[in-house]
Automatic annotation (TrEMBL):
<keyword id="KW-0732">Signal</keyword>
<dbReference type="GO" id="GO:0005783">
    <property type="term" value="C:endoplasmic reticulum"/>
</dbReference>
<feature type="domain" description="MIR">
    <location>
        <begin position="145"/>
        <end position="199"/>
    </location>
</feature>
<dbReference type="GO" id="GO:0005576">
    <property type="term" value="C:extracellular region"/>
</dbReference>
<feature type="signal peptide">
    <location>
        <begin position="1"/>
        <end position="22"/>
    </location>
</feature>
<dbReference type="Pfam" id="PF02815">
    <property type="entry name" value="MIR"/>
</dbReference>
<dbReference type="InterPro" id="IPR036300">
    <property type="entry name" value="MIR_dom_sf"/>
</dbReference>
<dbReference type="InterPro" id="IPR016093">
    <property type="entry name" value="MIR_motif"/>
</dbReference>
<feature type="domain" description="MIR">
    <location>
        <begin position="89"/>
        <end position="144"/>
    </location>
</feature>
<keyword id="KW-0677">Repeat</keyword>
<feature type="domain" description="MIR">
    <location>
        <begin position="27"/>
        <end position="81"/>
    </location>
</feature>
<dbReference type="GO" id="GO:0032991">
    <property type="term" value="C:protein-containing complex"/>
</dbReference>
<protein>
    <submittedName>
        <fullName>SDF2L protein</fullName>
    </submittedName>
</protein>
Length: 214
């Protein structure tokens, strides 16, 4: 293959991975409909869920933190508070209400007044079927600018109970040995900062059916 032809796929990949610059959109903003992994910046673990239920509390599907960056069970889809409230490719605003739907199981990130199993904070679970749950699936994105930028560390504050999505380091034993407890905390602190990592980000300037794979 000639040298120029060999370089073409690399150039196309570089263009796809360039910043999103949709009309009126902040470059590098996280957008509605995107699928991504979320890294807790204090403990260096990614938000994770799986078909393992809590043995206490609500008995719902457990949510944990994992160190592995390549685990397929760590992908979450950004959705609106209600259908139609977060159009695909629209940058997510700071203080916007969203749902985070676990891609592999179709359940929403959820919290409620049950104690978490290890730290006795507030239990965080995955709840619902095919992306449909209830009002306790809604979180506010707290960030410092206009939009949730991919490079920013943000907080997620739960609308129904006013806790922050957090990790403080407690580790589970069998059957999910080494995974960290995810829970809700009443105070904003360094345990509840999260950053967008690997994923498929919908570009504001593109047709919604197309995307930017990172």
């Amino acid at each position: 293959m000639p040298g120029g032809c060999r370089l073409l796929p690399l150039l196309l990949l570089a263009l796809l991975r360039g910043p999103c610059r949709g009309k009126g959109a902040a470059p590098g903003a996280v957008t509605c409909g995107s699928v991504l992994k979320l890294l807790n910046t204090r403990h260096n673990v990614r938000l994770h869920s799986h078909e393992v239920k809590y043995g206490s509390g609500s008995g719902q599907q457990s949510v944990t933190g994992v160190e592995a960056s390549d685990d397929a069970n760590s992908y979450w889809r950004i959705r609106g508070k209600s259908d139609g409230s977060c159009q695909r490719g629209t940058p997510v605003k700071c203080e916007q209400a969203i749902r985070l739907t676990h891609v592999n199981t179709g359940k929403n990130l959820h919290t409620h007044h049950f104690p978490s199993p290890l730290s006795n904070n507030q239990e965080v679970s995955a709840f619902g079927d095919d992306g449909e749950g209830d009002d306790l699936d809604i979180w506010i994105v707290q960030c410092s600018g206009t939009h949730w930028e991919r490079d920013d560390a943000v907080r997620f504050k739960h609308v129904g109970t006013d806790v922050f999505l957090s990790i403080t380091g407690e580790q589970y034993g069998h059957p999910i040995r080494g995974q960290r407890e995810v829970h809700g905390m009443a105070t904003a602190n360094h345990h509840n900062y999260w950053k967008a990592m690997e994923g498929v980000f919908i570009k504001p300037s593109m047709d919604p059916a197309k995307h930017d794979e990172l």
